[in-house]
Each structure stands twice: as structure tokens, then as C-alpha cells.
Write a structure and sequence with these properties.
The complex is a heterodimer. By secondary structure, chain A is α+β, with helices and mostly antiparallel strands. Helices cover 24% and strands 41% of the residues of chain A. Chain A has a domain of 55 residues. In chain A, the strands form 3 sheets. In chain A, strands 1-10-3-7-8 form a 5-stranded antiparallel sheet, with helices on one face. A 3-stranded antiparallel sheet of chain A has the order 2-9-4, with helices on both faces. By secondary structure, chain B is an alpha/beta fold. Chain B contains 13 helices and 10 strands. The radius of gyration of chain B is 17 Å and the shape is globular. The chains are: A alpha+beta, B alpha/beta. Chains A and B meet through strand 5 and strand 6 of A and helix 3 of B.
Chain lengths: 143, 286
């Protein structure tokens, strides 16, 4: 079995938004020359999530909006205290919780050198506490 | 234009900016050891995006001359200021205790375009009222270079809180009446002492950067409506407070949102968010 790893390095644009990574993942798969197996997409952060959904501008606004309604910023969070490890106050529990709901990894089957993915399905990184640099790992495994 | 739309951030430490660290691992190590900053290194364009998201049009980048050297180096701040087309204003990190040598460094910083100086007495190992510093203060006053003094809570372990009290700076304010003195962090938790200094001395200002008691909204509300009152702020401090975030210890847009939520008149907010900073920095709005 071959394993190919690529890290996508991006700087997000806003506090909360969806970043379509589909073409980056396709390019990594192409570069890997792997024909059959899996692509594993993994975010290296605790305040971002990964999701597969339709590439539609309304949905790209709805998903962050309803995540915010579900887990509001104005609430009592145990996480909001002086966080010695970072030398600052932690103030983003809501971003961590939203990220937990979304999950931080995706697996997509690869058949005949192509992602076995629905025509409406796109791969999104969901920024939940930006803007900042983000790194997403794309690992292709197979033959 | 909205008050928030053109905010000036008076307090940014570019200590985890790739371009400021010049790719030197040793420098990043010093940042971790001295400042105890654990957040990840970011490219300059991430900071620019953070500021734009917050509606910040200009920001002051601070260096500190620690015993282990300038962090980040003044030269890297100069370089960032030069290549970002007016978005950033540099405050040099200088050690004022070196007498005439410090004055020479101050003049060099001035000629290189630095607009002011950041001083951190408990970290740099001096008391603001040390007479040996007077030549430095005198020259800063002549050059119209504001001095931003750290006051209030410090998360730097070796910076003892005892020496962070805003009244430590009173002697400077009294003896150099034309020197613009900015007390960082509203002097928190000695907010009243810092506020009264700003009320009493025409040349003393406060920056509201930093968060110490909760989220930015919780902390800013606590300081401006529980410790102080909106009425007091409007009547006594409207011309004396400048906005700041203290990034990377807090994100600018979270601070902007917090200040925006204060029950203050728009005209007062406009002064705090940008007009007071323009006056202190002696710059025109573009």
C-alpha cells in the first residue's frame, strides 16, 4: 500500500466561514498517483471543522449561522479563564464546541483515480475562530 | 463613516508574526520563554486580515527591549511598517536606562520613522521615576514621541505586579508636562488610579487593551460600567482613552465588538476608537 501526504496551508478570511477545499483534495489525489483506496482529510486545529456539503452560497451562510444559534458566544463556559499555556485568557469555548459537533476528519473512497463522491458534494473546512493560518492534512492511502 | 469602521489599534505585539521573527528559531524561543505566548506563529497577512475583519485601519506595532534583546527586533517592525503602505505605526523597544546612549538610540528610532516608544519597567528592570531616565524623557518630549508604559496586570512571570502600578509613572507625568504618556491596560486592576491620573494630567492617556476578568465583552463591561461608570467615562475620559487589543493575547475583532457594546454615545466611542489615537500619534486620517 502506498501512502501520500500533503498539507494544505491557508489563511482564513473571516471569524466564521466555509472554505471549499475540494480542488485542493482532488489535486493531492492526482499528485499521489494512487488509483484505488481512500483519501483522509484531517484538520490540525481544535477550532475548525470539516464537513461535506453542497457548494451553494446560501448554505455557506446558513451553516455558520445555525451553528452560532446552537452554540451561542454569550454563555457561561468553563473554558473562559486564564489559560497559562497560551499566556492569555481563553474566550472561544463556543468555537471548540462547534468544531466538536462538526468533527475534524473525513474519509472519502477513491476508485479508478477519482473520489467516489456525489455530484453535489464538496469538501469544506469550516473556520470557527479566524482569520488565522490553518493547516489541513490530506493523506491518500491505496494502490 | 462608522466609528468602528475606522478603528486604530494602539496595542499590538507582533511577537508571533513570521516576518517579525525573521525565521529565527531562537527568537521564537525567547517569545515563548519571556512572554509565555503559546499561540501559533502567523504570517503577516493573517494579522492584516484580522485587523480588516475588525474594521481596524491602523495599528501600532510594539517592540520591547527586554534584557535578552528587542522582541521583536525594531528593524523587523520598521520593515513591516515600510512594506504595508501606512497600515502600521512602529513603536520602538528601547532601554532608557542607558543615559546618553539611550538618547542616541531614541534619535535614531525617530529618524527611522518610529512614532513612539514602548516601555515595560518591571521587565526591563527600571523604575520610571529613576532620575537617570530624565534625559531620555526630555528628548522624547522634544521629539514629540509618546511613551507607552506597561501598567496593570502582566502575564510575564518575572514582571512583578508590585512594579506595574500606574502611580509608578506619576513622576514622569508631573515632570514632563508636554510628554505624552500612555498607561496601558487601563492600569487594571488599579483602574481608578490610572483614570484619575488621566483626568488630572493633561499629558496622560489610557489604552484599554487586554482582557483580565472574562471574555472581552465581560471584561470591558466590567471596567467601563462596573468599576468606572459610563457617565464618568463620557464626562472625564472621552478624550483620554484609546482602543487597543493586546494581540496576540486577544483578537482585535473581539475587542472591537466588546467596546462597541458599551453604553456610550457614538461620539464618545468615535474618540476612543480612533480620534484620540490620531491626536496622540499626531497623524492625519487618510
Amino acid at each position: 500500500m502506498k501512502i501520500f501526504t500533503k498539507i494544505i496551508d491557508i489563511v482564513s478570511e473571516m471569524p466564521t466561514h466555509l472554505i471549499n477545499l475540494s480542488s485542493d483534495v482532488y489535486n493531492a489525489l492526482k499528485e499521489s498517483r494512487i488509483k484505488d483506496g481512500f483519501v483522509h482529510v484531517y484538520t490540525m486545529h481544535t477550532t475548525t471543522g470539516l464537513t461535506i456539503n453542497e457548494d451553494e452560497p446560501g448554505l455557506e451562510q446558513d451553516i455558520p449561522k445555525f451553528l452560532s444559534k446552537l452554540i451561542p458566544e454569550e454563555d457561561d463556559y468553563y473554558h473562559h479563564h486564564y489559560f497559562a499555556k497560551d499566556g492569555r485568557l481563553a474566550v472561544n469555548a463556543w468555537a471548540h464546541i462547534r468544531a466538536s459537533l462538526l468533527g475534524g476528519h473525513l474519509t472519502i473512497p477513491v476508485v479508478d483515480g477519482k473520489l467516489l463522491i456525489g455530484s453535489r458534494q464538496n469538501i469544506y473546512l469550516v473556520e470557527l475562530d479566524g482569520p488565522q493560518r490553518r493547516r489541513v492534512v490530506v493523506q491518500v492511502m491505496g494502490e | 463613516m462608522s466609528a468602528i469602521g475606522s478603528a486604530i489599534d494602539f496595542h499590538i505585539h507582533p511577537v508571533v508574526i513570521e516576518e517579525a521573527l525573521l525565521g529565527e528559531k531562537q527568537l521564537e524561543k525567547k517569545v515563548r520563554e519571556i512572554y509565555h505566548i503559546g499561540t501559533s506563529v502567523q504570517p503577516l497577512n493573517a494579522l492584516v486580515k484580522m485587523l480588516k475583519t475588525a474594521g481596524v485601519s491602523k495599528a501600532v506595532l510594539l517592540s520591547i527591549a527586554t534584557p535578552e534583546g528587542e522582541i521583536p527586533p525594531n528593524e523587523s517592525i520598521k520593515s513591516i511598517v515600510e512594506k504595508t503602505g501606512g497600515m502600521f505605526i512602529g513603536f520602538a523597544g528601547l532601554n532608557p536606562i542607558k543615559g546618553d546612549e539611550a538618547v542616541d538610540e531614541l534619535e535614531r528610532a525617530h529618524s527611522k520613522g518610529f512614532k513612539g516608544v514602548k516601555l515595560y519597567p518591571p521587565l526591563q528592570g527600571f523604575k520610571p521615576n529613576d532620575r537617570r531616565l530624565y534625559v531620555f524623557y526630555e528628548r522624547a518630549q522634544q521629539l514629540n514621541m509618546p511613551l507607552l508604559f506597561h501598567t496593570g496586570v502582566s502575564w510575564i512571570r518575572r514582571a512583578e505586579l508590585t512594579y506595574c502600578h500606574p502611580l509608578e509613572v506619576e513622576d514622569v507625568a508631573v515632570n514632563f508636562q508636554d510628554l505624552k504618556v500612555v498607561l496601558a491596560h487601563m492600569g487594571f486592576p488599579w483602574v481608578w488610579e490610572a483614570a484619575i491620573m488621566a483626568v488630572k494630567y493633561e499629558n496622560v492617556y489610557l489604552d484599554l487593551s487586554g482582557v483580565f476578568t472574562g471574555t472581552p465583552k465581560e471584561h470591558i463591561l466590567h471596567v467601563f460600567t462596573k468599576i468606572l461608570t459610563p457617565s464618568f467615562v463620557s464626562r472625564f475620559l472621552a478624550d483620554k482613552v484609546v482602543f487597543g487589543s493586546d494581540w496576540p493575547r486577544m483578537e482585535p475583532f473581539k475587542m472591537v465588538e466588546a467596546v462597541k457594546s458599551l453604553p456610550l454615545e457614538r461620539s464618545v466611542l468615535d474618540k476612543i476608537m480612533r480620534l484620540n489615537a490620531l491626536r496622540i500619534l499626531d497623524i492625519e486620517e487618510e
